[in-house]
Amino acid sequence: MKVTLNWLKQYVDFNWSPEELTERLTMLGLEVEGVQKISGAFEGVVVAQVITRDKHPNADKLSLCRVNDGRGEREIVCGADNFKAGDKVPLILPGASLPLKPGETAPFTIKVGKIRGVESHGMMCSPQELGLPDAVDGLLILREDAKVGQSFAEYLGRATGDVVYDLEITPNRPDWNSVIGIAREITALTGNPLHLPALPEIGHQLLAINDFIAVRVEDAELCPRYTARVIRGVKVGPSPDWLRAALEKSGLRSINNVVDVTNYVMLECGQPLHAFDYHLVAKSADGKPTIVVRRAVAGEKFKTLDNQERVLTGESLLIADVEKGIALAGVMGGQNTEINDRTVDVLIESAYFAPAGIRRTSKALGLRTDSSYRFERGGDIGVCDWANRRAAQLILETAGGQLVEGVVDTCPQPSEPKVISLRHEKTTALLGMEIPAQRQIEMLQSLGLAIAENQGAAITSFRIPTFRVDLKREVDLIEEITRLYGVDKIPSTPPRGAAGTHAFDAVHDQLAEARRILAGLGLNEAQGQTLIAESAAKFSVASEVVVPLANPLSSDMNVLRPSLLPGLLDAFQHNFSRKNGDVPLFELGRVFTLINGQLKEERRIAIALTGRRAA
């Protein structure tokens, strides 16, 4: 998960340096794998326009170009083949340096130099040379509205510096897979409020959602909630600079304004979304498109956005219309309803899919996406409609159109939030120090937990927000208090009790002495399995004393060993098969038998010798 300093500051006010933020995030339990500082990015790189393109006089695969950099024309030698006169491209000027690539220790600085006998005064750049994620073979061709002479940083919306944090997210904290989730943690440390975007109701009152779309969920277990909105009259095109820059810093490629918005909102709040071309969704008998959330038919074929035809199992959850599948739920959309240059009306999907179902589909198809990654870890059923409204707001801002009033929501009121009670004395007992009860309450409230009931000074009950799926027990609340208070501030208290040798210590010492003596006699210690096959157990003891397992993992591990002999024989066989026959062995371990219907456990020592007898 990549998150930028400037993006975080849109949601919470703080004045920490980039290094201080790294330290604070680490103390909160977030592992910062990397930090990338983006200085006034792309210094010495400008938007240039190709005036002419001719063949190089001394090389068949090179071109000799005249380009306008906004201050005048200059001659450039170029090896790319995907451009023409009139195109606008990024041009790095002499004296400027290319961004460092992985493994490089010093930047490559551009100089005026001769290439096959002709001077080149700069270099036109590919995305890879600029450290951008676009998978383009050749030069990066810029939009027609790019201003010649404009700094490339301004063109991308990166006029100011930034810091990108690469975070490793633990599986139990899916709420951290979002910028808002990380910002919420910072609010808990600073005490400053969380600034969420305002989402005013902006639907067109003459257009009602129920006249435009219907949703039928056939498997509510795999899809407990599905929301849908419709926007009419959009203009699909390039995204604005700020949106492209936000995605690129987060490691995603810009596609178009509508798709980019869905990806932006996913990064912002952690909720994956999908946008369909409304007119490519088949209509039902009542004349309006109908979304059907169903399991795929075993063997059903479906072509995903990556142009791969996939054969589905009956376990895969499919978003379909009345005629065909149109998306792999929570994984990837389909080519047959893809947003394209001709799209006019858009259907926005924001749903909650059960983690186990998405995991099965992703594994069966060998297909993992940013969306499936988030759903597999458990999403937030409560954020579905907020994310849908936010996407609608940004699509209207970047692509225009009219929002149809209302939303189709199959679960407008998710189940009541879980309530967990906290005994404040329990916190003191576990931490070995006292944190005032009011301070405990304030820390949990700063994380978004609300007081459900205050049962006097001793116990407080909290309603758990839907985005905190990891909070299940009282001890989880105490862990949150510990994180915010600071593990480094909790004193190390040695265990209390009288010193002395306990019975356990005496047995441990005896076992260690036995091992030392046997090893001193030249024996090698073997360590057999506690679970063995029933056939091996009956080889060494009577069948009526063997202890069977109620739910064995396999037939080779279905009883507890009644003797150490089977394990030693297996060890001998292992050595013999490797032509190592002279290995004296011993084993010291527990054995288990049934005596008069009661389980009996004993420690035993077994010694076994093999090989030639000494003369």
Question: What does this protein look like?
Answer:
With 615 residues, the protein is an alpha+beta fold. It folds into 5 domains: 2-33 and 165-190, Phenylalanyl-tRNA Synthetase, Chain B, domain 1, CATH 3.30.56; 45-156, OB fold (Dihydrolipoamide Acetyltransferase, E2P); 204-409, Phenylalanyl-trna Synthetase, Chain B, domain 3 (Phenylalanyl-tRNA Synthetase, Chain B, domain 3, 3-Layer(bba) Sandwich), CATH 3.50.40; 419-489, Phenylalanyl-tRNA Synthetase, Chain B, domain 1 (2-Layer Sandwich); 504-608, BirA Bifunctional Protein, domain 2. It is built from 15 helices and 32 strands. The strands form 9 sheets. Strands 11, 13, 14, 21, 22 and 23 form a 6-stranded mixed β-sheet that branches. Strands 5-4-3-6-9 form a 5-stranded antiparallel β-sheet. Strands 12-15-18-19-20 form a 5-stranded mixed β-sheet. Helix 5 (241-249) crosses helix 6 (257-269) and helix 6 packs antiparallel against helix 9. The radius of gyration is 33 Å and the shape is globular. It starts with a strand and ends in a 7-residue tail after the last strand. The model has no long low-confidence stretch (mean pLDDT 90).
